[in-house]
């Protein structure tokens, strides 16, 4: 079974990324799906290092999606 984690970002300019021509910043949530939790953690570290705000599960992010006008971006 795969593992899905959602990542959010702060408003600092250091929390802005461009990955595969997608702008990642405080106005969106990144969805990362990998084979297991270790792979998810590795992907987060690879993409963002320590410069992100929070991580959420599917259940936890649902109530907060209204705060992210650009929605979910899957990586």
Topology:
Blueprint: E1 3-8, E2 17-19, E3 22-24, E4 29-34, H1 37-48, E5 54-56, H2 58-61, E6 72-74
Parallel strand pairs: 4-6
Antiparallel strand pairs: 1-4, 1-5, 2-3
Largest sheet at a glance?
A: 4 strands, mixed
Q: Give the low-pLDDT segments.
A: none
Categorize the overall geometry: globular
β-strand number: 6
State the oligomer. single chain
Keywords:
single chain, about 80 residues, alpha+beta, four-stranded mixed beta sheet, 6 strands
Describe the structure.
With 75 residues, the protein is α+β, with helices and mostly antiparallel strands. It has one domain. It is built from two helices and six strands; from the N terminus they run ββββαβαβ. The model has no long low-confidence stretch (mean pLDDT 95).
